Structures are given as C-alpha cells and as structure tokens.
Amino acid sequence: MIFSRLGPKFSPYTSSFTPNRTYDNEQLAFLCLRVLNEDLTSYTPGAGYLSTIDTKGIDSFDKSDVSEVLWYACRFWTEHIITIEHPVSENLLNSLRKFLKSKLNSWMEVLVTQCVFQTLSKVRAWIQVGNTCVETGADLFEDDIPSGECTIASAKYARNLCRLSTRLSYTNRPEDALVAEPEAVNLYRQLAVDHPSTFNPDHANSLTSLSKRLSYLGHREQAFEVIQEGVDLQRQLAAVHPSVHNAYLAMSLNNLSVHQSDLNHHEQALNVNQEAVDLQRQLAIEHPSAFNAHLAKSLGNLSSRLSYLGYCERSSGAIWESVVLYRQLAAECPSAFNAGLARSLNRLSVRLSNQGHYEQALLQCTIAKITRRLLQMPVCIRLSGRGDTGETSSYYSQGLFLMLFSDL
What share of the chain is helix, strand, coil (3-state, %, to 5)? Predict the structure, then answer.
C-alpha cells in the first residue's frame, strides 16, 4: 500500500472515512495524486461511461471493487492540496500536471458514482494564488502542455462535464448537476476567447443547459439571465451561418420564452415565442421531417401565450395548426407523437370552449381522451380554475364530457 511509505502506523482515513489531519497535507496530496496517476485507469470500475452518449444515468457497481486507498485519493486530494502553503515541491507539481493531463476525466467519472461532484474551482484558485511556484507564472492547467494539446484536453473535460450534468439530472441529482454545468460554461467561455468559431456554439449550448438546471431548482432570475446570454450568442452565430445555427437559435428562443413567462413577462414571452415559431416555420418548409415536430410544439406554446393575453382567435389558429401537424406526425409514427397529439387536442378543446363552441370542444376532448387511453396515459380534466398557462376552461363542456364519456 503506497500510503505505508509515510510510516507503518499511517492510516489515511479515520473510521468515519474523513481526512486524517495529523499528517502533512503536502505529503498526503502528493501520495493521493500518485495513487490516482498509477491506479486509476480506463478499466477501473466506474470509469469510461461518459464516452458513451446513447445511455443515461451513472454507472453503478460494488464499492468494494475499488480499493479504499483509491477511494480516499479520489475524495480528498483536492482538500489536501488547497491547504498547502506555497511554494510547493516540484514533485507535487509534476504529479498534478500529469493528473490534469491524463486522469482528470476518469477521476470525475469514478468519484460521482459514490460521492457528490467536486469542481476544480478551489484548485484553480490555489494555483493562481501561488503562480510564482511555476517558473513561467502560467496557469498550472496549461503549464508545460503545448497549447493545442491543452485546448483539446480542456474541450474534452468541458464536454464531459456537460454529459455528466445531464446524467446527474437524469438520476435525480439536480444539485450535483448544477455544480457541474457552470464549470463547463466557464471552460467553454475561456476556450471561445481564443477560438470563437470553434467553441462559441458549445458555449451557447452549455448556457442553455445551465438555464434549465437553474430553473429546475427554482433559481428563475439567474436562469433568465443565463438563457438571455445564450440567445444573444446564438443570434451572433445565426447571423454568420443561418443554415447551421437557426435551429439552435429557435430552441434557445423557446427556452427564453418559458423563463420570461415564469417571471410574468408575458408580452415579452409572446414576442419571443412568435420569433421562434417564425424561424421553425422556415426550417420546416426546407426540412419538414426534421423540424415539423419542433414547430408543432412551439405552436402549442404560442397558443397558450396568446390565450393568456386574450388573443382568442390567434390562439385558436395556432393550436389548430399544431393539431394538424401532430396528426401528420402521429400517422407516420404514433408511438412517438400520439402523446403530443393528445395534448394539442386537449388545448384545442379548451380554446373552443372559451369561444363558446361547446360541441366542437366536446368532440376534441373525446378524441384526446381516446388517444391518451391508447397510450395508457391519464387525461388531465380541468373542472375549474387554471388551464394550461392560466386560461380558464368551461364548466359546461368538461362537465358534459365527464357525464357522457366517463366509461371510456
């Protein structure tokens, strides 16, 4: 065991698996990094899953498959290193360089299988405080690594951070997901300074993901600020290469509209939603198979925004168009689009009911319920109060629907 080199009675962890404070932090940091550099490989249980993009979640395995020493090194190397006062030994710096260059992603993968995600922000701050310990004064993340290799390594780490955030969110770990995503955003922002054409698209997409993480945890103001930055960046990209980036701009606009609505900026949300629909309509004309589904969803959202602000005729027109598109999509692939069709039909019934077209509303409600039953999905019947995004549904059509079709 490598920790035995500190002495025959050395134990790097206490009974509660917390750091041993009785030994020198520089020695412990060096040994942790040495363990990680020597023992952490692509064959270590829990390593390598971020290279697979078609699966979800975090790999699971028996914790005993990994040695206690490696677990300790994964968990506590950062805590030991940030407490070291500069200057530090060249051996430690070399071990850190090697780890950052070749083991960083594997460490991140293995760590989160059992522990909370750890950012490297404190390690970066520690490096910057002690930059005189490196002869060039450069950031240790880049020192002695050719700029091209460093860019590739940083881009790979940023990409894996985004993937990890998605997997953490999927496994119901939203707090961890929110820790990982900002680090990816910051990395892409730094990379885009020197290589804007290469990394601005990734930067913009990471901003969109971050806004979703923030919104999910209730940080609505921050989510709005982040998605606004993302939209501004997507506009710049679309202005240069519209055929490449208009689709991403439309998706960002839809997200911005949602965040504006969450903050009760309903007029602004409507205008942004309309811009997204206009973009997606153009895209759907050129590539219907790729964009009709996005257009149908955006039209449904637009209908809700219009209805909330009292534009009943326009709202009905938007949801009718959405229903027509979903019918076409569901005819070709019912398993993928019947749910969307049912939602659109339900919205349509509400719009018709609000305009006094009760018989038509009842018919559309019935079709929506049958469609949902085919999918074994529950129907959301609104008897009073709020419908989708606040519109009030009719007691008449929905009460009659319950009486006539409760046995469907």
Answer: 75, 0, 25
